[in-house]
Amino acid sequence: QKEVEQNSGPLSVPEGAIASLNCTYSDRVSQSFFWYRQYSGKSPELIMSIYSNGDKEDGRFTAQLNKASQYVSLLIRDSQPSDSATYLCAVNKMGTYKYIFGTGTRLKVLA
Amino acid sequence: DADVTQTPRNRITKTGKRIMLECSQTKGHDRMYWYRQDPGLGLRLIYYSFDVKDINKGEISDGYSVSRQAQAKFSLSLESAIPNQTALYFCATSDSRGEGYNEQFFGPGTRLTVL
């Protein structure tokens, strides 16, 4: 079992729809969770960090964390073609060097 | 101006050559990292440094070495490049203090090709 798992996609959604991206992790002691957006050939860009169970909203993005079920998700409201990218999930045990990245979900927003 | 910079951005070299990739940051972060990214394998940690005197191997350090010249500078060297080191290389930083203290921020990357 991979430490961080994401569906590779592509996930296709129409413009204006809600895109839902999911990530599961295996280490229960993971404490910090991050979503990155990465355009092809570019570097990962931090979108959201979440540390506590529940929802965290920032503009069109909402991160959801459920530690009991060991999953974290990212919702993108009013999806735009410019949101088309690969989204990476990362987990970290606070205070340690180890950040485990998923291989990413490719999102395609259709105009 | 970018907070994390990497040089060079692209490099083509030959097998056996010594290569240095450089990373500088103006974020004031104490922790710095080197990753490589290969298609289908995701990001893998090569080395990390929690401060100038603290350097540690990551999961794939063989064939690589690093130097933390200052808090703001962290260099990665390939002593004798080989073709399977062809990849995208990213430097990242994080701050061990304050709110959002373990968020990682990435530089723009170096595309390295070893022929």
How would you portray this structure in words?
The complex is a heterodimer of chains A (111) and B (115). With 111 residues, chain A is mainly β. In chain A, 0% of the residues lie in helices and 54% in strands. In chain A, strands 2, 4, 5, 9, 10 and 11 form a six-stranded mixed beta sheet that branches. A five-stranded antiparallel beta sheet of chain A has the order 1-3-8-7-6, with no helix packed on it. In chain A, strand 9 and strand 10 (99-101) form a beta hairpin. Chain A is globular. In chain A, 33% of the residues are buried. Chain B has no helices and eleven strands. In chain B, 0% of the residues lie in helices and 57% in strands. In chain B, the strands form two sheets. In chain B, strands 2, 4, 5, 6, 9, 10 and 11 form a seven-stranded mixed beta sheet that branches. In chain B, strands 1-3-8-7 form a four-stranded antiparallel beta sheet, with no helix packed on it. Chain B starts with a strand and ends with a strand. Chain B has strands at residues 4-7, 10-13, 19-25, 31-38, 42-51, 54-57, 64-70, 73-78, 87-94, 105-106, 110-114. The model of chain B has no long low-confidence stretch (mean pLDDT 93). Chain B is mainly beta and 115 residues long. In chain B, a hairpin with a 2-residue loop joins strand 5 and strand 6 (54-57). The chains are: A mainly beta (111), B mainly beta (115). The A-B interface holds A 32, 34, 36, 41-46, 49, 88, 90, 92, 94-95, 97-99, 101-104 and B 31, 33, 40-43, 45, 48, 50, 56, 58, 88, 90, 96, 100, 102-109, 111.
